[in-house]
Amino acid sequence: MNASHPAVHPVGVPPAVAGQLPPRMRMKEIQGMPGTIGGLLLRLGQFCFALVAFSIMVSIENFSTVTAFCYLVAATVLQCLWSLALAIIDGYALLVKRSLRNSLLVSLLVVGDGVTATLTFAAACASAGITVLIGNDLRQCKENHCARYETATALAFLSWFMVSLSFILTFWLLATR
User: For side Cytoplasmic, which residue ranges?
Assistant: First the structure.
């Protein structure tokens, strides 16, 4: 019986073609990007902070008399809806082991994160300004709920910080495509 003997044959390196770049390597999955555990945790954190800020504001009986507080409620509702929807998408992508690197989807996420981050930051700043006005300048914290206003505003800033991280990481993903 003729048995073949294994042999190692050296393979030459293909010659480089002038003007042709080597194939691009895909960027590693950095935690916090869409479709990762970190991305899911960021979205859930955004949702929780915005939901608690919304709940605190709505629990104050006269919040609707101040426009900045109404704006904060509207911004946190939008933030809750956006973050919950993307948390569901991230969770689904993790369950079925799919990558969320479609250019159109990543572009949509960048724009959505940018818009919600801007709105949440503006609402938190406006609410912080009114809270400082009521507490420090007018000295009417006894009649108003300054501690609740401050807590809701601080939570809105935390939600903004987390959505800003999502925006930066998603923008980086889009820019390195």
Answer: 1-36, 90-103, 175-177
Is the Cβ–Cβ distance between 34 and 90 less than 8 Å? yes
pLDDT in tens, 9-60: 566 666 666 667 655 555 567 888 898 999 999 999 999 999 999 999 999 9
For residue 109, which amino acid is it?
A: L
For the chain, the 3-state helix, strand and coil shares in percent, each to the nearest 5, are 70, 0, 30
Q: What are the sequence ranges of the domains in the chain?
A: 37-175
Please state whether 35 falls in left (phi above 0), alpha (psi between -120 and 50) or beta.
left
- pTM listed for this prediction: 0.81
* Torsion angle (degrees, nearest 10) of CA 160, 162, 168, 173: -140
